[in-house]
Amino acid sequence: MEGCVVAAHGRQYVVELPDGGLLPCFPRGKRSDVACGDRVDIQRTSDDQGVIEAIQPRTSLLYRSNVVRQKLIAANVDQIVIVVATEPGFSDELVTRALLAAESEEIEPLIVLNKCDLSERVPAARAQLAVFAALGYRIVELSARDHAEDLRPELFGYTSVLVGQSGMGKSTLVNALVPDAGAATREISAALDSGKHTTTHATLYHLDAESELIDSPGLQEFGLGHLDRQEIEHAFREFRPYLGQCRFRDCHHDREPDCALTAAVAAGRIDPRRFTVYHRIIGTQRVD
How would you label 7-32 residue by residue, b for 16+ Cβ within 10 Å and e otherwise? Predict the structure, then answer.
Protein backbone atom coordinates (compact mmCIF):
# COMPACT_ATOMS: atom_id res chain seq x y z
CA MET A 1 0.00 0.00 0.00
CA GLU A 2 1.02 3.60 -0.54
CA GLY A 3 0.30 6.53 1.74
CA CYS A 4 1.40 9.99 2.83
CA VAL A 5 2.94 10.74 6.23
CA VAL A 6 0.70 13.38 7.83
CA ALA A 7 2.28 13.37 11.29
CA ALA A 8 5.78 12.54 12.51
CA HIS A 9 6.37 12.07 16.21
CA GLY A 10 9.67 10.48 17.18
CA ARG A 11 9.76 7.04 15.55
CA GLN A 12 5.98 6.86 15.25
CA TYR A 13 4.18 8.16 12.18
CA VAL A 14 0.62 8.58 11.04
CA VAL A 15 0.10 7.65 7.40
CA GLU A 16 -2.92 8.82 5.44
CA LEU A 17 -4.20 6.04 3.20
CA PRO A 18 -5.71 6.55 -0.26
CA ASP A 19 -9.22 6.21 1.20
CA GLY A 20 -8.52 8.99 3.72
CA GLY A 21 -8.06 6.69 6.69
CA LEU A 22 -5.19 7.09 9.14
CA LEU A 23 -2.81 4.30 10.11
CA PRO A 24 -0.07 4.53 12.77
CA CYS A 25 3.16 3.15 11.35
CA PHE A 26 6.70 2.44 12.47
CA PRO A 27 9.82 2.27 10.30
CA ARG A 28 11.78 -0.92 9.88
CA GLY A 29 15.05 -0.99 11.77
CA LYS A 30 16.40 1.32 14.45
CA ARG A 31 17.15 4.30 12.25
CA SER A 32 14.36 6.44 10.84
CA ASP A 33 14.69 8.87 7.94
CA VAL A 34 10.96 9.48 7.52
CA ALA A 35 9.57 13.04 7.50
CA CYS A 36 6.14 14.56 7.49
CA GLY A 37 5.04 14.87 3.86
CA ASP A 38 6.86 11.75 2.72
CA ARG A 39 5.12 9.40 0.30
CA VAL A 40 5.76 5.90 1.60
CA ASP A 41 5.16 2.25 0.84
CA ILE A 42 3.64 0.54 3.84
CA GLN A 43 2.50 -2.88 4.89
CA ARG A 44 -0.35 -3.33 7.33
CA THR A 45 0.71 -5.53 10.26
CA SER A 46 -2.64 -5.41 12.04
CA ASP A 47 -5.96 -3.61 11.80
CA ASP A 48 -4.56 -0.58 13.57
CA GLN A 49 -0.85 -0.56 12.78
CA GLY A 50 1.57 -0.80 9.89
CA VAL A 51 5.24 -0.73 8.98
CA ILE A 52 6.96 1.64 6.56
CA GLU A 53 8.77 -0.45 3.97
CA ALA A 54 10.22 2.32 1.80
CA ILE A 55 10.25 6.07 1.20
CA GLN A 56 9.31 7.09 -2.32
CA PRO A 57 11.64 9.53 -4.16
CA ARG A 58 11.38 13.06 -2.77
CA THR A 59 11.17 16.36 -4.58
CA SER A 60 12.70 18.15 -1.57
CA LEU A 61 13.71 17.63 2.04
CA LEU A 62 13.91 20.46 4.55
CA TYR A 63 15.92 19.72 7.65
CA ARG A 64 18.31 21.22 10.13
CA SER A 65 21.41 19.62 11.57
CA ASN A 66 24.30 20.10 13.93
CA VAL A 67 27.43 18.15 14.76
CA VAL A 68 25.43 15.65 16.83
CA ARG A 69 22.23 14.95 14.90
CA GLN A 70 19.85 16.07 12.22
CA LYS A 71 16.18 16.97 12.58
CA LEU A 72 13.92 16.37 9.60
CA ILE A 73 11.27 19.06 9.21
CA ALA A 74 9.26 18.21 6.09
CA ALA A 75 9.53 16.42 2.76
CA ASN A 76 8.10 17.15 -0.68
CA VAL A 77 7.35 20.79 0.11
CA ASP A 78 7.72 23.48 -2.53
CA GLN A 79 7.27 26.51 -0.28
CA ILE A 80 8.59 27.46 3.15
CA VAL A 81 6.60 30.03 5.12
CA ILE A 82 8.81 31.67 7.74
CA VAL A 83 6.59 33.24 10.38
CA VAL A 84 7.89 36.20 12.40
CA ALA A 85 5.97 38.72 14.47
CA THR A 86 6.03 42.30 15.65
CA GLU A 87 6.33 40.84 19.16
CA PRO A 88 8.07 39.01 20.69
CA GLY A 89 11.27 39.93 18.88
CA PHE A 90 12.57 37.57 16.23
CA SER A 91 16.07 36.52 15.19
CA ASP A 92 17.38 37.85 11.86
CA GLU A 93 19.93 35.05 11.81
CA LEU A 94 17.31 32.33 12.29
CA VAL A 95 15.34 33.78 9.36
CA THR A 96 18.55 33.83 7.30
CA ARG A 97 19.35 30.23 8.18
CA ALA A 98 15.85 29.07 7.23
CA LEU A 99 16.17 30.93 3.93
CA LEU A 100 19.55 29.31 3.25
CA ALA A 101 18.11 25.85 3.90
CA ALA A 102 15.25 26.64 1.50
CA GLU A 103 17.57 28.03 -1.18
CA SER A 104 19.75 24.91 -0.98
CA GLU A 105 16.69 22.74 -1.73
CA GLU A 106 15.19 25.16 -4.29
CA ILE A 107 12.13 25.63 -2.09
CA GLU A 108 10.19 28.85 -2.66
CA PRO A 109 10.51 31.14 0.40
CA LEU A 110 7.83 33.41 1.86
CA ILE A 111 8.15 35.53 5.01
CA VAL A 112 5.02 36.33 7.02
CA LEU A 113 5.08 39.24 9.45
CA ASN A 114 2.35 38.44 11.96
CA LYS A 115 0.66 40.51 14.70
CA CYS A 116 0.47 43.62 12.54
CA ASP A 117 -2.55 44.69 14.58
CA LEU A 118 0.10 45.97 17.02
CA SER A 119 0.54 48.93 14.70
CA GLU A 120 3.05 50.79 16.85
CA ARG A 121 5.49 47.86 16.51
CA VAL A 122 5.13 47.38 12.76
CA PRO A 123 7.73 49.99 11.61
CA ALA A 124 10.54 48.43 13.66
CA ALA A 125 9.71 44.90 12.45
CA ARG A 126 9.40 46.13 8.87
CA ALA A 127 12.82 47.78 9.14
CA GLN A 128 14.27 44.53 10.47
CA LEU A 129 12.93 42.69 7.42
CA ALA A 130 14.05 45.35 4.92
CA VAL A 131 17.27 43.50 4.12
CA PHE A 132 15.23 40.48 2.98
CA ALA A 133 12.76 42.59 1.02
CA ALA A 134 15.69 44.22 -0.81
CA LEU A 135 16.81 40.77 -1.95
CA GLY A 136 13.42 40.06 -3.48
CA TYR A 137 12.01 37.79 -0.80
CA ARG A 138 8.23 38.00 -0.65
CA ILE A 139 6.84 39.38 2.62
CA VAL A 140 3.18 39.30 3.66
CA GLU A 141 2.03 41.43 6.58
CA LEU A 142 -1.07 40.33 8.48
CA SER A 143 -2.74 39.63 11.79
CA ALA A 144 -3.46 35.93 12.18
CA ARG A 145 -6.32 36.70 14.55
CA ASP A 146 -8.20 38.89 12.10
CA HIS A 147 -6.80 38.56 8.59
CA ALA A 148 -5.30 35.09 8.20
CA GLU A 149 -7.23 34.75 4.93
CA ASP A 150 -4.82 37.28 3.41
CA LEU A 151 -2.30 34.45 3.32
CA ARG A 152 -4.48 31.88 1.56
CA PRO A 153 -3.78 33.09 -2.03
CA GLU A 154 -0.05 32.75 -1.33
CA LEU A 155 -0.56 29.11 -0.30
CA PHE A 156 -2.74 28.01 -3.20
CA GLY A 157 -1.20 25.31 -5.34
CA TYR A 158 1.71 24.72 -2.94
CA THR A 159 2.64 22.21 -0.31
CA SER A 160 3.89 24.71 2.26
CA VAL A 161 5.66 24.23 5.58
CA LEU A 162 5.35 26.74 8.41
CA VAL A 163 8.51 27.37 10.42
CA GLY A 164 9.35 29.94 13.05
CA GLN A 165 10.31 30.63 16.60
CA SER A 166 7.88 29.83 19.38
CA GLY A 167 5.42 32.64 20.07
CA MET A 168 5.21 33.94 16.51
CA GLY A 169 1.58 32.85 16.13
CA LYS A 170 1.90 29.80 13.89
CA SER A 171 -0.81 27.87 15.73
CA THR A 172 -3.21 30.80 15.50
CA LEU A 173 -2.51 30.98 11.78
CA VAL A 174 -3.15 27.26 11.28
CA ASN A 175 -6.38 27.32 13.26
CA ALA A 176 -7.64 30.26 11.22
CA LEU A 177 -6.73 28.72 7.86
CA VAL A 178 -7.82 25.17 8.70
CA PRO A 179 -11.19 25.36 10.49
CA ASP A 180 -11.12 21.66 11.35
CA ALA A 181 -7.48 21.62 12.43
CA GLY A 182 -8.50 20.83 15.99
CA ALA A 183 -10.51 17.83 14.86
CA ALA A 184 -7.68 16.68 12.60
CA THR A 185 -5.09 16.89 15.37
CA ARG A 186 -7.40 15.07 17.78
CA GLU A 187 -7.77 12.27 15.23
CA ILE A 188 -4.00 12.17 14.74
CA SER A 189 -3.42 12.21 18.51
CA ALA A 190 -5.82 9.28 18.86
CA ALA A 191 -3.87 7.42 16.17
CA LEU A 192 -0.67 8.21 18.05
CA ASP A 193 -2.39 7.00 21.23
CA SER A 194 -1.72 10.37 22.80
CA GLY A 195 -4.16 11.91 25.25
CA LYS A 196 -3.76 15.36 23.76
CA HIS A 197 -2.17 17.10 20.81
CA THR A 198 1.50 17.85 21.33
CA THR A 199 3.38 20.52 19.43
CA THR A 200 6.48 18.35 19.28
CA HIS A 201 5.48 16.77 15.99
CA ALA A 202 4.91 18.07 12.49
CA THR A 203 1.40 17.77 11.07
CA LEU A 204 0.10 18.01 7.51
CA TYR A 205 -3.29 19.59 6.80
CA HIS A 206 -5.24 19.76 3.55
CA LEU A 207 -6.18 23.36 2.76
CA ASP A 208 -8.06 22.45 -0.41
CA ALA A 209 -7.75 20.06 -3.34
CA GLU A 210 -4.65 21.92 -4.59
CA SER A 211 -2.89 23.00 -1.40
CA GLU A 212 -1.40 21.45 1.72
CA LEU A 213 0.09 23.01 4.84
CA ILE A 214 2.58 21.39 7.21
CA ASP A 215 2.86 22.90 10.68
CA SER A 216 6.19 22.28 12.36
CA PRO A 217 7.23 22.69 16.01
CA GLY A 218 8.58 26.05 17.10
CA LEU A 219 12.34 26.27 16.88
CA GLN A 220 15.00 28.43 18.47
CA GLU A 221 17.91 27.43 16.23
CA PHE A 222 18.44 26.24 12.69
CA GLY A 223 21.68 24.34 12.25
CA LEU A 224 23.12 24.04 8.74
CA GLY A 225 25.74 21.40 9.44
CA HIS A 226 24.67 19.41 6.38
CA LEU A 227 25.75 22.22 4.03
CA ASP A 228 29.38 22.80 3.10
CA ARG A 229 30.93 26.23 2.61
CA GLN A 230 30.32 26.32 -1.14
CA GLU A 231 26.68 25.36 -0.69
CA ILE A 232 26.20 28.08 1.91
CA GLU A 233 27.86 30.66 -0.34
CA HIS A 234 25.52 29.76 -3.19
CA ALA A 235 22.48 29.86 -0.88
CA PHE A 236 23.14 33.57 -0.28
CA ARG A 237 21.40 34.72 -3.46
CA GLU A 238 23.19 38.08 -3.54
CA PHE A 239 26.59 36.32 -3.52
CA ARG A 240 25.97 34.39 -6.74
CA PRO A 241 27.00 37.06 -9.27
CA TYR A 242 30.44 37.26 -7.61
CA LEU A 243 31.22 33.61 -6.90
CA GLY A 244 34.22 32.37 -8.87
CA GLN A 245 35.52 35.89 -9.46
CA CYS A 246 37.97 36.04 -6.54
CA ARG A 247 41.70 35.89 -7.23
CA PHE A 248 42.03 32.66 -5.25
CA ARG A 249 39.80 29.72 -6.13
CA ASP A 250 39.46 28.68 -2.47
CA CYS A 251 38.90 32.22 -1.20
CA HIS A 252 37.34 32.41 2.27
CA HIS A 253 36.17 35.98 1.60
CA ASP A 254 37.92 37.27 4.67
CA ARG A 255 41.35 38.92 4.34
CA GLU A 256 42.41 37.57 0.96
CA PRO A 257 43.37 40.17 -1.66
CA ASP A 258 41.13 40.74 -4.69
CA CYS A 259 38.11 39.06 -3.09
CA ALA A 260 35.02 39.73 -5.20
CA LEU A 261 32.65 39.44 -2.25
CA THR A 262 34.49 41.84 0.05
CA ALA A 263 34.72 44.27 -2.87
CA ALA A 264 30.96 43.98 -3.38
CA VAL A 265 30.39 44.69 0.31
CA ALA A 266 32.65 47.75 0.14
CA ALA A 267 30.74 48.97 -2.94
CA GLY A 268 27.38 48.60 -1.17
CA ARG A 269 26.17 45.75 -3.39
CA ILE A 270 26.07 43.25 -0.52
CA ASP A 271 24.63 44.20 2.86
CA PRO A 272 27.43 44.07 5.45
CA ARG A 273 25.07 42.57 8.03
CA ARG A 274 24.39 39.60 5.77
CA PHE A 275 28.13 39.24 5.13
CA THR A 276 28.71 39.18 8.90
CA VAL A 277 26.05 36.47 9.32
CA TYR A 278 27.73 34.47 6.55
CA HIS A 279 31.05 34.54 8.40
CA ARG A 280 29.35 33.69 11.70
CA ILE A 281 27.67 30.65 10.11
CA ILE A 282 30.88 29.49 8.45
CA GLY A 283 32.83 30.03 11.66
CA THR A 284 30.44 27.95 13.75
CA GLN A 285 29.71 25.14 11.29
CA ARG A 286 31.81 22.63 13.19
CA VAL A 287 29.89 23.17 16.43
CA ASP A 288 26.56 24.48 15.08
Answer: bbbeebbbbbeeeeebbbbbbeeeeb
